[in-house]
Write a structure and sequence with these properties.
The chain is 50% helix and 7% strand. With 286 residues, it is mostly helical. It folds into three domains: 3-94, Orthogonal Bundle (GROEL, domain 1); 103-162, no CATH class; 193-282, GroEL, CATH 3.50.7.10. A three-stranded parallel sheet has the order 3-4-5, sandwiched between helices. It has a two-stranded antiparallel ribbon with strand order 1-2. The chain is elongated and about 90 Å long.
Length: 286
């Protein structure tokens, strides 16, 4: 069954153990241990959080009666360690080896495993659809299997079956100025991509500094210097040969139009994790 949790700021509906436990404000030491177990399971495996909490809770319940009868906790722990060894030995006996299977058989087995983990999720009715998508996504990333390399973008509207996988790096459309529509949105050949942690925007003087002048002509010199600085940055970017410019920080209207006139695509305020994926995919250094 799905649970609804309201923490005072937001409402969450889920039946995923890790999600629910992470939202609860738990103080009791034994309960905190169960929370840590669930989070460890989620970080290591990504599924089975409810199962480990139920199993650990039952083990604690059984040990309580033994402690009340006067048995030392070390003896109980030793018994649990022996039980763990027996469980691991049994798992090795019943495990299915995939080393000798063909590529199609491996993918089929992985899809079944993914569908099994989706049985307890809200999207369980579409487990076949998402099972294939998950396996395809995981097979697309490097051998280190860093799940941060897989980005998930949520778009309001439509059905869950409208979801699709993109073999590349996606990021939501960023805030844009006039001139953005004139920029190219498609490059056939592999373009140079420039990743920046740089602001390409003119700042109002009152926001950035306090300047006291005795000669009105000096104010114009300051304005000219500011324009000179930003144009120097833009000229260097164009000289680099980059056709796609992505930045963590804002890209202003001046820079947007400047790039549009030179057939360069730009986007500012790109999320850090998306930019990190771009860097990893292209070998760029931010």
């Amino acid at each position: 069954m799905d649970k609804l949790i309201h923490d005072g700021r937001s409402v969450t509906i889920s039946n995923d153990g890790a999600t629910l436990i992470g939202l609860l404000d738990i103080v009791h030491p034994a309960a905190r241990t169960l929370v840590d177990i669930a989070q460890s399971q989620d970080n290591e495996v990504g599924d089975g959080t409810t199962s480990v909490v139920l199993a650990a809770g039952e083990l604690m319940r059984q040990s309580k009666s033994l402690i009340e009868e006067g048995m030392h906790s070390q003896i109980i722990i030793k018994g649990y360690r022996n039980a763990l060894k027996m469980c691991l030995d049994r798992i090795k006996e019943v495990s299915v080896k995939i080393g000798d299977k063909t590529g199609e058989e491996k993918i089929d087995l992985l899809e079944k495993c993914a569908q099994t983990s989706l049985n307890s999720k809200i999207i369980s009715k579409h487990k076949e659809f998402f099972g294939k998508m998950v396996v395809e996504a995981v097979m697309s990333i490097d051998k280190d299997l860093n799940k941060e390399d897989i980005g998930i973008k949520k778009i309001t509207g439509g059905s869950v079956t409208d979801s699709f996988i993109v073999q590349g790096v996606c990021f939501k459309k960023t805030f844009s100025y006039a001139g953005f529509e004139q920029q190219p949105k498609r490059f056939e050949d592999s373009p140079k991509i420039l990743c920046l942690n740089l602001e390409l925007e003119l700042k109002a003087e009152k926001d950035s500094a306090e300047i006291r002048l005795t000669n009105p002509d000096d104010f114009q010199k300051i304005v000219d210097a500011e324009w000179s600085i930003i144009y120097d940055k833009l000229d260097r970017i164009v000289a680099s040969g980059a056709k796609v410019v992505l930045s963590k920080l804002p890209v202003g209207d001046l820079a947007t139009q400047y790039f549009a006139d030179r057939n360069i695509f730009c986007a500012g305020r790109v999320q850090s994790d998306d930019l990190a994926r771009v860097c990893k995919a292209t070998g760029a250094v931010l």
